[in-house]
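Dear Dr. H.,

I hope your travels went smoothly. While you were away I took the liberty of generating a structure for the chain from your last submission, since the lab meeting agenda had it listed for discussion. I wanted you to have the full record in hand beforehand rather than looking at slides cold. The sequence, exactly as received, is reproduced here:
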Amino acid sequence: METVAGKKVLITGAAMGMGKLYAQLAVREGAAAVVLWDINRAELDKTAAELLAQGGKVHAQLVDVSKLEAIVAAAAEVRARIGNPDVLINNAGVVRGKLFWEHDQLRDTWLTMSINALAPMYIAREFLPAMIENRASEQRIVNIASAAGLISNPRMSVYCASKWSCTGWSDSVRLELEQCGHRHVKVTTVNPTYISTGMFEGARGMLLTPILTPEYVTARVWAAMKRGRPRLILPWTVYLSSALRGLLPLRWFDWLANHVFGVYKTMDTFKGRTAPGESGK
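The corresponding predicted structure, in token form, is as follows:
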């Protein structure tokens, strides 16, 4: 895929942060329609107005992706108004940084799993059948997971669970599409470390691993999406930690992660962003 010009792009968590940057890239390349899903009405209206002023063909929808019924209704509206999207970017996400037993079952555990793990599945299920049928055009699904979907981390147990789920599901769907001959639909799973969007305010970077900028990550994801790259892990140190975790005895890796790389201490000073309508990487 050289460009998204003439294609329909749907982005969740699109009102701010990385979601907004993806939307700007889509408008810049001349997408036929850019659908913005978010729960934050004020920021959603603001972003939609900015993109419309730039000449974008924008459709903004207030959607709570933690609820299946809201996803089904919003997806039906998308199909009725503009047709099925050619590019789906599952970007919406939340994070809770606390000990597992301090999580509130509803506001923390249920919400995190609903948005980070279940919502990408529900949304993809709404649009994937039509993507499979549309063999005349390259189709793309991007699922924003996390390096926390590859490496365990204290004070991130529920978040890690949601991103491990997203990672495993996303890559499994990629394989299913390939095995069934639907190679025009390509799935990219993205596993970045901390990104300076505000969601991980207070989190510390690891050894040789800086906090990534949203602009850097979105540019890399956008390029990977168009190439149909199966997996994007950022930065290279995540590959190293994943390899060491697989090769070393668990207690040896724990010692390195804790005392050398500093992985297990990154959330000790976490503050995060808990404003109403938080969403997006």
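Two observations you may find useful: The first strand starts at residue 8 and ends at 12. The chain has eight helices and seven strands.

With kind regards,
E. W.
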